[in-house]
Amino acid sequence: MKTIGIIGGGQLGRMLAMAAARLSLKVVILEPDANCPAAQVANRVIVAPYDDEAALDALAEACDVVTYEFENVPLIAATRLARRLPVYPPPKALEVSQDRLVEKRFLNGCGLDTARYHAIDSLEALQAGLEDFGGHGILKTRRFGYDGKGQLVLKPEGLDIEAAFAELGGVPLILESFVPFIREISIIAARSIDGAISAFDPAENIHRDGILSTSRVPANVDVAIMQAARSAAASILTALDYVGVIGVEFFVLASGKLAVNEIAPRVHNSGHWTEAACLVSQFEQHMRAVAGLPLGQTRRHSDCLMHNLIGDDIDRVPDWLATPDALLHLYGKDEARPGRKMGHVTVLSPR
Ligand code: ATP
Ligand code: MG
Ligand code: MG
């Protein structure tokens, strides 16, 4: 029986551990919070900071392979582990996705379009960049942003460049052109150790306050766009010599072209629908890939709409429990703070 190490014990680690159990894989989680969501389902939790050397060595000792549930795993931890056992996805995927500037250069190097961008290390660079974009752009921290945190939309009206710079300042920034997208889609794809690639159908995503609110499948885009998303994901997976599941977020432009927004080298919130609408979920797919098992089938048996349950949305659980064709999944978190992901529910439209 193989043992899989997972760095990070949030809801994604928890759902990975649940999928692992069904495949008779054991799971050891490395996570500083002993009461993390994954602790309720993992075989063992090593409670320590992600870069604690003794804890990393204990993880390596206990496992056959290590994976992770978030992209901000310290690179130093991943490379320390990679000296002793396979780390999937490869640390290079962390390096690329941890820094929005490195990520965009990588994507462009794969022949994929992104928003236009400027590296911003000074107020002067921000002024010049905004001039290039006609005063309209999104200023983002290069590192550690998630759920729309660490970004500001800048518009020509009432623009105070100094205040914007100060608000996000102190870290390297990136200024992106504002993409006039008509919709947002994402694709969850996987690559196995032997190089096989497979993808689920793209989802159409709606964000509220910078946080994913719903994912609908099928996305309301034509087949050529779906195919372009699949082929973009395949280029990325191949370029990274990737093993595991990846999430790729796209903007769909009025021209029918795609621009990649960002990649997540892990299972992705916009792929939670797969547990309800496919026989093999993204979580099982990831576990299969990193454990060296064959990838599972990605065919969708139902159309569906996934709702994230954020903060107070948890109060509607009784309604969801009574909703036909709805699969509810809660993360075992006690305190419902605003913006906190508490669970999700996928409503199927049987066809
Ligand atoms: P996640 O939680 O998905 O990791 P994040 O904090 O990394 O989010 P992004 O995905 O970069 O943030 O941006 C969040 C949302 O903001 C996007 O899904 C999109 O709706 C909007 N957005 C981001 N960048 C741009 C852009 N250049 N042009 C237009 N809209 C954008
Ligand atoms: Mg992100
Ligand atoms: Mg995003």
TrEMBL record:
Keyword vocabulary terms for this entry: ATP-binding, Ligase, Nucleotide-binding, Purine biosynthesis
Annotated ranges, domain ATP-grasp: 104-291
Protein name: N5-carboxyaminoimidazole ribonucleotide synthase
Function: Catalyzes the ATP-dependent conversion of 5-aminoimidazole ribonucleotide (AIR) and HCO(3)- to N5-carboxyaminoimidazole ribonucleotide (N5-CAIR). Catalyzes the ATP-dependent conversion of 5-aminoimidazole ribonucleotide (AIR) and HCO(3)(-) to N5-carboxyaminoimidazole ribonucleotide (N5-CAIR).
Binding site for ATP: 100, 140, 145-151, 176-179, 184, 207, 261-262
NCBIfam families, A to Z: PRK06019.1-1, PRK06019.1-2, PRK06019.1-5, purK
Single annotated GO MF: metal ion binding
Organism: Xaviernesmea oryzae
Origin organism lineage: Bacteria, Pseudomonadati, Pseudomonadota, Alphaproteobacteria, Hyphomicrobiales
Keyword Ligase: yes
Gene: purK
